[in-house]
Every structure is written in structure tokens, then in C-alpha cells.
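From the pipeline queue, job 12 of 40. The input is one protein chain; the requested action is below.

Action: predict structure.
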Amino acid sequence: MQNYYNVIRLSVIVLLLTITVKAQSATNKTRKQKVPASYGYILEPGDKIPEFSMTMADSTKVSSTDWKGKVVMLQFTASWCGVCRHEMPHIEKEIWGKHKDNPDFVLIGIDRDEPVDVVKRYASDMKITYPLALDPGAHIFGLFADKAAGVTRNVVIDKTGKIVFMTRLYKTDEFNEMKKVIDSLLKQ
């Protein structure tokens, strides 16, 4: 009889441990990204993106309201930014190359305060095929980050229009995490 109670106690302990581990795992998956203050963002994960419109380098107009139901990655960049130039081939190959044919995915590079001829030359020099938008006066940039903060940053937005992930500069671990976030969002 003592063995029977020991087996039951052990079973209850295993069950409680299993529930605790699963609950902790679920919590970790839904935990919001903590973006360091040093990144200079004025929005954070969980915030809805503001509504804005922009002109693409090919002269078409795009509005953030067009992206409902899509996973969006905004890359803030500029031709004079060395880190941007380092990151762009990774974005082209590892993100755009993988998802460009997915109708639920949007990637736009937003060039900070440069004329269209510079932006087109920048895209050509960098051999990128994802679309670039113009941001005269860094007005769009200023909706997301302090205008005194630098470029080389990415914002990932879910299908409901909420920010879910933000990067600053190019850090391999952070970039790889961003790719996982995008993949996960596109599976939902």
C-alpha cells in the first residue's frame, strides 16, 4: 500500500512539474521584446504603428493602412550609413529572398532624407531588389524613433498592425532572432 501512495505522489509531482514547465514555456513565447532605451525608439513592441504614407523610389504611393493582414518589415536606412550597407545584403538574401513571393509579407527599406536619384543609385550599388521608399525630412523615421537617433534599424509589424520586434545596428544574434520572428508570424 505504501508503494501505491508513493507512486501516486510521484505522479502528482511529475504532473505539477510538467504543467509548470509548459506554463513557463508559453510565457516565454508571448513575452514582449524589451528594447533598450539606448536604441532611441519612441514606440515599442506592442504599440500599434501610426498611419502614414510614403512615396517609393519608383514614384508609387504606399500607405501603412495598405498592410492590414500582412507581416511587415520596415528597414530604416541611408546610403551614407556603413552599418546599413553591411546589413542590406543579409536582408536581401536571408529575408527578401526567402519571403518576396509570399503575398502576406511586405519589406520596405525607408531611406532617410535623401533624393530619389541617390536612393536609386544606392539600391543599384547594393544590388538589392526589395523596394525602397523616400523619407524627406525623416518624418516617417520620426514616428518610430527620436530623429537624433541613427539609422540601421528594423521594425517588424504583425498582421494586426502591432510592432512585435525592433533592431538597432547590425548584431548577428538580434538579426537571426528577427528572422525567426518573421518566419513565425508568417506561419500564423
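Job complete. Residues 39-187 form a domain with the Glutaredoxin fold (CATH 3.40.30.10).
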